# Entry
Amino acid sequence: MAGKSRRKYRKISIFFVIFMCLGGLWISKKILDHNSPKVPTWLAVRLAERKRIHQEQCQKKPPDPHFIEQADFHRLIVIEDLKLVFCTIPKISGTTWRRVLYEAENNGTTIQGSPHRGELFSWLDRDYLPAERKKILDTYYKAMFVREPFARLLSAYMNKVIWSDEWGRKLTRHRNISNQELEENKFPMFVRHVLSFNHSRITMNQHWRSYEQICPCEVNYDFIGHFENLGEEAPQLLKVIGVDDYVTFPEYHPSTSRPFLLKSYSTLTREEIFKLGQFYDLDFKLFGYDFPGPLQEILDMKTALGEE
# Structure
């Protein structure tokens, strides 16, 4: 009798363990589904890790009791029908995202004219009172995309200096410099120009302003996408917000500009590279990018050559 009782108890124990395991898996799945609607497991894991890093680093900042009233929200688009907040960052497919989000909000209607007109969207800072902002940030799905900081800065340089005579003139104003010297030193001059701002929001161009100054880290973002994975992650965001049946993200072609990036940054001194690393330190830390990242081989080369 005692043996039968032990076998019966063992069976019950095994059944209980299996039941608890299956129950735990079911509960975990329900939690995952609730927090990450329509997100496949591979992406849910990726987003959870990015969110963990982002929150962990943001908590190191001193708390701001006036965050809702005073934070810079001027690049946070609000789409009420989709309960979506999207923070647009220059040089991270910002123009494309505006076109796509306009279609998402307007049942697939293609935007006419420039997508950079402010009246096309509702904006968190301009169109909502502090109490409304808080409610939106507490209840809406919040998304953003970021990019490796050195690659983004180089993209801004190409857009605002190489392709813009106005910025080229600003860099050389009051300098007695030949055209040859200008071409050889234009990128270092641009970098020194950026470093001179010391993170001033008032005068610093948004194309090279730090991510945290554009998309405040106190916002608890649900979807932090990476530009490097835009082709696979952008369509997933459209699924999450429920518009993928009538909106598609344009085909994305990964950048092949690494040789150009290395060539450009090799014109900087080691000191300038490290100063840029300090300047964008929070961007690296908040979004899981390593410093010096793609510039490690430049630093190794300069070290081998004995450069300062």
Q: What stands out?
A: Residues 2-35 form the longest helix (34 residues). Strands lie at 76-79, 84-87, 122-123, 141-146, 223-226.
